[in-house]
Amino acid sequence: MGKRVLDLSRSDELKDGIHEACGVLGISNYQDDDLAHMMYFGLYALQHRGQESCGIAIYKDGEITGQKGIGLVPEVFTEKTLDRMDGTSAIGHTRYSTTGGSSIENSQPLIFNYKGGKIALAHNGNLVNATKIRYELENKGAIFQTATDSEVIANLISRYGLKCKDLKEVLIKTMDVIKGAYALVILTQKKLVGIRDPWGLRPLCIGKLGDSYVLASENCAFDAIGADFIRDVEPGEIIFIEDDNLISIKTNYNKAHKSCIFEHIYFARPDSVIDGASIYRSRLEAGKLLVKEYPVDADLVVGVPDSGITAAIGYSRESGIPYGEALIKNRYVGRTFIQPNQKLRERSVGIKLNALKEEIDGKRIIIIDDSLVRGTTSYKIVQMLKNAGAKEVHMRISSPPVLNPCYFGIDISSKEHLIAANYTIEEIRESINADSLAFLSVESLLKAPIGAPANCFCTGCFTGEYPMKVPMNSDNVFRGEQC
Ligand code: SF4
Asked: What class is the 22-260 domain?
């Protein structure tokens, strides 16, 4: 084993360094008596976007009520809870916290009063100027109950509700002030509203379920409830749904389309289609492009479960090297996995993942993962393969090196924790003890989402080119926009 320039042996994460954002869902004008159950199924399908907390706000007879809690969808919503939730329209949320900690206060949907009545809001994304707006609002007497930037949006809606003639004007005025990433679903006593930020950073799409309209972060939620996909909400577009009418308002805020390329690499489910591009096909294509850029002679291609599997299949098809299932994931290890001390924590990757010796022994292995952020998991996986008898381990990553943090709702940690921002590729290779290491180029990555409009992606975490200005402190650390 070569000299390791980094100690990557200590990690308790299977997928280190990146975490999901949030999922949002809304169903309007639903005529059967099982709306809460439909929301439950839809949120279940969006569980991959956030596992910390979840909630549903439901409208019935002029009243909006909510139920939310810490935990996964089936932990928060029991049969009994769902039976008690009756209504005709609803919104829901699955949360991973990027601003505000993991607490019940910060869970969503938020329900609040404004001049036009009661309103519920669920948000996926991060505002880059939330700190500044919050500071200004607090100076004018506003009180905040949560630490989220979503409550900043709620507060603006409430404030503009006092001055503006209708909700449309309120929302346009709110969009005038907030900057950053947002896919919002809003429930009023009359309407379901969907809004996508001016760059379309976070996904939001429209579906139809009988006479009802559905809004969701990803269309995999439509499949779960039997709805048909209609189209994506466009960047800067506001969708108003009242009864069975849908009205689209194209605001002046529409910028060039810059949706998050990481949705295609890792976050979104492979059975979703975002802005015309199938996530599954994007990952398959990324694997094929990786062969063209970094071929290697080997006996078996293996994907890191689950994130690297599709790209590994693509790599195998393009290279002609057989694909094998050499790493077995324990599907029953959840968030509550007990790891009381460091020694036991170090065992955690081995419990979550195990190598299939029969497939690996004596072979030259190409192991594919979707991204490499801190490097700790990669080191353990390479070790696992070598311990199982691999003659050589060649690591291929189906995205470029992550060099910069994300400010738009994806929890990619600060630069100091990003291995590629601090070490050369050769140093990383040596640290993870692989025989070779290569990353897909940015140029190839942008070719992978087949069907998406050209130049329509944010690549900020790879290139440092963000679609909007991100406010930094003098130490080059993002703290939200300072006043
Ligand atoms: S910086 Fe990266 S993770 Fe964040 S929105 Fe852009 S592409 Fe996505």
From this structure: alpha beta
